[in-house]
Specification:
single chain; alpha/beta; Rossmann fold; Dihydrodipicolinate Reductase, domain 2; 2 domains; seven-stranded mixed β-sheet; six-stranded mixed β-sheet; 24% strand; binds adenosine-2'-5'-diphosphate
Length: 340
């Protein structure tokens, strides 16, 4: 990469996604000049490692961004709403992983494999939004299909890992699983019900239309990223007792006819996607295989026999990597290479 060396900050560096962002910057040899780790007051005194160097965590504040070129945020919606404009005012470009800015008309919502060109619009507000994890892993394969066959409708059901909620939820699933196996009382603090050995059809808050905010994020974000408001999308999002890796059943309807064989061939050539589809040998995408790597795994590719132009897919990805940290770092790479 011929990018210039960048002063970069990671806000929310002590969290599940923040930690992975740091790992991605290291793994991908991001051209770092200076790096800064930001978190809440609670983390003062903590140090985090970057390229074998111990770096003290600083408290996120209005003045954290002087001299910083790019800040990648994963500290939750509140801190993003409050501090991203401060960063932008200091000339820093924010890549924000929260939902705070995603639907702002002046903020591009970017998945590099789909709409890298939208990055150029960062100049409007100094902020680029990273989409929701479930949306990212769905739009990469369906974008390839949309370009060739024009998707008219999507029905998606998700099976989402607890790591998407954050570090405390990872601990809650671990604690509950151990407690139940030991025959002890199981407590819940993060979710409204027990998550171990259970499925919760409830991610983020319920809205007036009866859908959850997570479900409506998938509807609105998909249309914004694909720049097509005519695509009809309906979603059911479910939290399942899996630590890492979201899975999705995706049913699509297309204008032009596409067979499962054609879709498989197309996805075999799609950047960021790995086709894992040999059911006779019990080979299909699984969360445990998606976890820890960046490809979006697609399998169970079938003709939908209930309609004339329909396809069913099963899609899994690491929600912390491609669903969050990797996508944000890929955006930062493009910024560093083409815009700064
Ligand atoms: P801290 O560890 O100091 O609480 P997760 O999504 O895994 O729960 O992580 C959330 C991340 O966002 C953590 O790094 C957390 O820092 C940070 N964070 C949460 N609230 C704030 C805040 N008000 N100001 C700065 N950082 C915050």
């Amino acid at each position: 990469m011929s990018a210039k060396k960048v002063n970069i900050a990671v806000a929310g560096a002590t969290g599940a996604v923040g930690n992975q962002m740091i790992a991605c910057l290291e793994e991908r040899n991001f051209p770092v000049n200076q790096i800064k780790f930001l978190a809440s007051h609670r983390s003062l005194g903590r140090e985090l490692k970057f390229n074998n160097e111990q770096i003290a965590v600083e408290e996120l504040g209005e003045d954290s961004f002087k001299g910083i070129d790019i800040a990648i945020f994963s500290a939750g919606g509140g801190p993003s709403k409050k501090f991203a404009p401060c960063a932008a005012a200091d000339g820093c470009v924010v890549v924000d992983n929260s939902s705070a800015w995603r639907m702002d008309a002046e903020v591009p919502l970017v998945v590099p494999e789909v709409n890298a060109g939208a990055i150029a619009r960062y100049t409007q507000k100094g902020i680029i939004a990273n989409p929701n994890c479930s949306t990212i892993q769905m739009v990469v394969p369906i974008w390839a299909i949309h370009q060739r066959y024009k998707i008219t409708r999507i029905v998606v059901s998700t099976y989402q890992a607890v790591s998407g909620t954050g570090q405390k939820a990872i601990e809650e699933l671990d604690n509950q699983t151990r407690a139940i196996i030991a025959g002890e009382k199981c407590e819940h603090n993060v979710y409204p019900h027990q998550i171990a050995f259970n499925c919760l059809p409830h991610i983020d808050v319920f809205l007036e239309n009866g859908y959850t905010k997570e479900e409506m994020k998938m509807v609105h974000e998909t249309r914004k990223i694909m720049e097509d408001d005519t695509i009809r999308v309906t979603a059911t999002t479910v939290r399942v007792p899996v630590f890492y890796g979201h899975s999705e059943s995706v049913n699509i309807e297309t204008q032009e006819h596409a067979s499962a064989v054609e879709i498989k061939a197309l996805l075999n050539e799609t950047d960021g996607v790995r086709v894992v589809d040999d059911p006779v040998a019990d080979i299909y995408p699984m969360a445990i295989d998606a976890a820890g790597q960046d490809d979006i795994l697609v399998g169970r590719i079938r003709d939908d026999e209930s309609i004339s132009n329909g396809i069913n897919l099963w899609v899994t990805a690491d929600n912390i990597r491609k669903g969050a940290a990797t996508n944000a770092v890929q955006i930062a790479e493009r910024l560093a290479k083409d815009y700064l």
